[in-house]
Automatic annotation (TrEMBL):
A cellular-component GO term for this protein: cytoplasm
WD repeat residues: 93-133, 212-244
Keywords, sorted A to Z: Cytoplasm, Repeat, WD repeat
Molecular function GO terms recorded: ubiquitin binding
GO biological process, one term: ubiquitin recycling
All residue ranges annotated as the PUL domain in the record: 477-746
Sequence ranges assigned to domain PFU in this UniProt record: 349-449
Stated name of the protein: Phospholipase A-2-activating protein
Length: 748
């Protein structure tokens, strides 16, 4: 029985830059691009429709993966953003020094990442920290891992490593060039792809089983679907393979294939350099129109013909002959199609006015032809035809062009290229040597591109090393301070008794039903199971009851409500309340109302502030409170003139918030500005005790030690003058040294 063939189902004009990575989960599709955006799509009526634009990224996005427990991980420069299924940020993992280029979700709380810093990191997401770091690679690292803490890594040197935790078990020379992807094979071993144009199937012990040959250039991406391998690369091909290494189907695309994915409908989804995402299916009911399918085939043929090396003989023979010129009707004015004149491809343009195809010319660059290449020109190189136009892919996946004519000065061309790209002249000779070696027509495109790519990577690594050596090394002892204060004391029996006593006094609209009472009782019991709290879930209904009923009780009845919720925020199930678009806004607005109600209920205010402090315990909750920091700032400033116990709570809250901003780079563009303003206003309003001053100064120090430049600059702009003139009247040497470090952090 003949295997079903994939055909175009949908074309999505997703991005203005290269589509570097895509992930699927359920009915969702996440696309990430060099245009600094990510987009979420949902399958509706057999078509993907965009539902969310994620535009808070500042740099290129290189990698993404769907997480086992829902949501996504996105590699943004040297950081990893954790997103929920609606695209909302949950937290940031930091530990890599360069771009994150590979991500795999191992389990609910385990993630492995590879970076151009030549390391792989295994993360415990529940703790937001790294637990293992795997070294010994060269440049970009591809990764794979399983729940038994077995890991497979590979990098630029083509060496494949197996690990058990941080212990290296075995290394093999797997490829001749950079390893781009590592996956678990259906046979129980592994499968890899590389810039050396091959895909290889390995046993669990890293013994080679099969080599797949068929790609004509770098193989960038790969996915496993049942007993098939789907691969794509720089040759603009997606090949569907059987596990014996035989190709089952080949799909030609108009541009470089950077990423492929498989969805729940068994569709193949392809992301390319032209910013488009294309969906291919075997479901005849979801095929695109014949015109769309033929249009893609023509676009791919025309694009392929423009590549260096032109069209293959097989591709030329597939073109319609010139005898079809009179029977094939163009769809629009200016449409370009290729026709075969004997064994030669020719380009024709449709003229609507004369209703015929008009010859544009021969397709340049047939196989073996020594054709000229056109360069559009820039400040350093004139526009025109050159003997060579070398492709140079930088770290961001952006292609830079190096034009050269035979007989020209190697040094002049190399110097102009260095000036244009900002390369150090230290690398001038390397570029000259490259041109000398690669300016004969017999060199393959893969050799040319690979050497320039490696040279660029070596330059980037050297620059980073020089910058690191040039930095002044200062050993800070007191900042950043990262131990949050949480309020964990509990009297669940008293809490439960008071809560249900007040519930009996409520109107029918606000009173808990018998079922809701049972749910809430079970939730209270779960909070008491401290030893096994991480494995015990509290029903989502608790969060719904809290918002829809309990928060609407009059303030005089809210003490047991906030006493419960203070403890609930320490439980991982509370993240349900803070997920979604509103991110717990009702809670923050309710607390704002409480602190501004006269006469003030001091005990209730303190419980509410303890609740806010406890919000920094879990990722989703922490991101929510930072998202609503403007409301929290207003809560703080509403309590400037208050008693000592409340001041202590406020100082702990501010310190917790600074830790949240430091650990997650803010997530709110104005987080540092808002908190800095609150701190200075709080300190300037009246004389505070030494302990309070010390905590708030430490909070400023946390902001100044943030890896994010924007956070540091916002804080320094607002607090510099105050901090530099601040004198603390104390003999406590720790407090004085901390102040000294904060002052110093603003001067370097």
């Amino acid at each position: 029985m003949e295997a079903l063939q994939y055909k175009l189902s949908q074309t999505i004009a997703a991005h203005n830059g290269i589509v570097r990575s895509i992930s699927t989960q359920g009915n969702e599709l996440l696309t990430c691009s060099s245009d600094k955006t990510a987009k979420l799509y949902e399958m509706k009526d057999n078509q993907y429709q965009q539902v969310t634009l994620i535009s808070f990224f500042e740099k290129y996005i290189y990698a993404t993966c769907a997480r086992v427990n829902g949501g996504y991980a996105v590699g943004h420069d040297n950081q990893i953003y954790l997103l929920d299924n609606e695209g909302n940020p949950l937290g940031i993992l930091e530990g890599h020094d360069q771009q994150v280029c590979s991500l795999k979700s191992i389990s609910e709380n385990l993630l492995i990442s590879g970076s151009w810093d030549a390391t792989a990191i295994i993360w415990d997401i529940s703790q937001m920290k790294q637990i293992y770091r795997l070294n010994g690679h060269k440049y970009g690292v591809a990764v794979y891992g399983d729940e038994n803490l077995n890991f497979i890594t590979g990098s630029q040197d083509g060496i494949l490593h197996s690990w058990s935790k941080e212990t290296k078990i075995k290394s093999v020379q797997a490829h001749k060039d950079i390893i781009r992807e590592i996956l678990l094979s259906p046979l129980g071993g592994y499968i890899t792809c590389s810039n050396d144009e091959t895909i290889k199937l390995w046993s669990k012990d890293l013994e080679l089983i099969q080599t797949f040959l068929g790609h004509k250039s770098f193989v960038f991406t790969m996915k496993i679907h049942m007993d098939q391998v789907i691969s794509g690369g720089d040759d603009r091909l997606v090949i569907i393979w059987n596990l014996d290494g035989t190709p089952q189907q080949t799909i030609q695309l108009p541009d470089t294939v950077w990423t492929v994915a498989i969805n729940n409908f068994n569709d193949i989804i392809i992301g390319t350099s032209d910013g488009k995402v294309r969906v291919f299916t075997t479901d005849k009911n979801r095929f695109a129109t014949q015109a769309e399918i033929e249009g893609l085939e023509q676009e791919a043929s025309l694009s392929n013909a423009k590549q260096e090396g032109g069209m293959s003989e097989e591709e030329v023979q597939k073109l319609p002959g010139i005898d079809k010129l009179n029977t094939m009707i163009g769809k629009k004015e200016g449409e370009i199609r290729l026709f075969r004149n004997g064994n030669k491809p020719e380009a024709y343009m449709w003229s609507a006015a004369s209703s015929n195809w008009q010859l544009i010319g021969d397709v340049i660059g047939g196989k073996g032809a020594n054709s000229k290449k056109f360069f559009p020109g820039d400040k350093y190189f004139e526009a025109g035809e050159y003997d060579h136009v070398f492709d140079v892919e930088d770290d961001h996946g952006i292609t830079k062009l190096l034009p050269y004519n035979e007989g020209e000065s190697f040094y002049d061309s190399a110097e102009k290229f260095c000036l244009r790209e900002g390369y150090s002249k230290h690398y001038l000779q390397q570029i000259v040597n490259f041109l000398k070696k690669n300016t004969s027509f017999g060199q393959s495109q893969r050799q040319k591109k690979s050497e320039l790519e490696t040279m660029k990577e070596q330059y980037a690594q050297q620059q980073i090393l020089q910058q690191q050596q040039a930095k002044q090394q200062i050993d800070f002892q007191y900042i950043p301070y990262t131990q949050c204060t949480y309020y964990e004391n509990m009297n669940l029996q008293g809490l439960s008794k008071k809560l249900f006593e007040f519930n009996a006094q409520m109107s029918e609209e606000l009173k808990l039903t018998e079922k809701e009472t049972l749910i809430f009782n079970k939730g209270i019991e779960s909070l008491g199971q401290v030893q096994v709290q991480k494995t015990v879930n509290i029903e989502n209904s608790v969060s719904i009851i809290f918002i829809q009923k309990l928060l609407k009780w009059d303030a005089q009845y809210l003490l047991p409500v906030y006493d419960f919720f203070r403890l609930f925020c320490l439980h991982h199930s509370s993240e349900q309340l803070f997920a979604g678009l509103e991110k717990g806004m009702n809670l923050f607005l309710n607390i704002f109302t409480i602190v501004n109600t006269q006469p003030i209920n001091a005990v209730l205010v303190r419980l509410a502030l303890q609740t806010l402090c406890n919000c920094l315990k879990h990722n989703t909750n922490s991101c929510a409170i930072l998202y609503h920091l403007r409301i929290v700032k207003d809560i703080i400033l509403s309590l400037l003139d208050t008693d000592e116990k409340t001041v202590l709570l406020l100082s702990n809250l501010i310190l917790n918030l600074s830790i949240g901003i430091y650990q997650r780079n803010g997530l709110n563009d104005q987080a540092s500005e808002l908190l800095s303003e609150a701190i200075i206003t709080f300190l300037q309003y009246k004389q505070r005790d030494v302990e309070t001053i010390a905590k708030l100064v430490t909070a400023i120090g946390n902001l100044m030690k943030s890896p994010a430049k924007q956070i540091r600059e916002q804080c320094k702009k607002i607090t510099f003058e105050f901090i530099q003139s601040l004198v603390i009247d104390t003999n406590n040497q720790d407090t004085l040294k901390c102040l000294e470090e904060v002052k110093l952090s603003m001067l370097i």
